[in-house]
Amino acid sequence: MKFYDLSLKRYSVRKYLDKKVDRELIKKCVEAARIAPSAENVQPWRFLVIDDPEKLNELKKAAFSGVYSVTKWANSAPVIIVVLAKTDILANTIGTFLQGTQFYLIDIGIATEHLILQATELNLGTCWIGWFNEKKTRKILNIPSKYKIVSLVTLGYFEFNEKRTKKHRKKLDKILFFNSL
């Protein structure tokens, strides 16, 4: 599939089928993330895949309750990938200090998008989640403090809906400038 077509096909899936995702497909998605570029090649990403039904239910109860209940649609996902950043990497600390940019977040964004586009190519749905209870998620999964939980990504099979793939984006002439704003 051509890249532009793949980008058009990808959309945020919020309703999944009750169907197990083979771990080999999950590994393909994480492999796509693994080969992403990163600042100084530090590769700060780590991916914790939760696919055990019991553990998944614990995570869902912890992550999507209270003020985070607007994200409860994620309860239908058969897989949740916890996207972590290893924050104790010297290059990230120096980059943040000198440039004022947390490069590890850019690195994680690139890697996660690689994962999501690979899933799309495999006809798996995904949704990138930033609104979840980080504290409870950390506790339930016993995640050490040297890792920052950046996001969660739901993953699974879904009913394809042609109408949902329509993108509502700004026109190119509203976002593209040459040589000056």
Low-confidence regions:
none
Strand neighbour order, sheet with most strands: 1-2-4-3
According to CATH, what is the topology?
A: NADH Oxidase
Arithmetic mean of pLDDT: 92
CATH second-level architecture = 3-Layer(aba) Sandwich
What's the CATH C level? Alpha Beta
CATH superfamily: NADH Oxidase
Give an overview in words.
The chain has 181 residues and is α+β, with helices and mostly antiparallel strands. It has one domain: 3-Layer(aba) Sandwich (NADH Oxidase). Helix content is 39%, strand content 16%. It has a 4-stranded antiparallel β-sheet with strand order 1-2-4-3. Helix 3 runs antiparallel to helix 6. The longest helix is centred in the middle third of the chain and has 19 residues. The chain is globular and about 50 Å long. The two termini are 34 Å apart. 28% of the residues are buried. The model has no long low-confidence stretch (mean pLDDT 92).
Keywords, separated by commas or semicolons:
181 residues; alpha+beta; NADH Oxidase; 4-stranded antiparallel beta sheet
Describe the secondary structure blueprint for this structure.
Blueprint: H1 3-9, H2 23-34, E1 45-50, H3 53-63, E2 79-86, H4 90-99, H5 103-121, E3 125-129, H6 134-141, E4 147-156, H7 172-175
Antiparallel strand pairs: 1-2, 2-4, 3-4
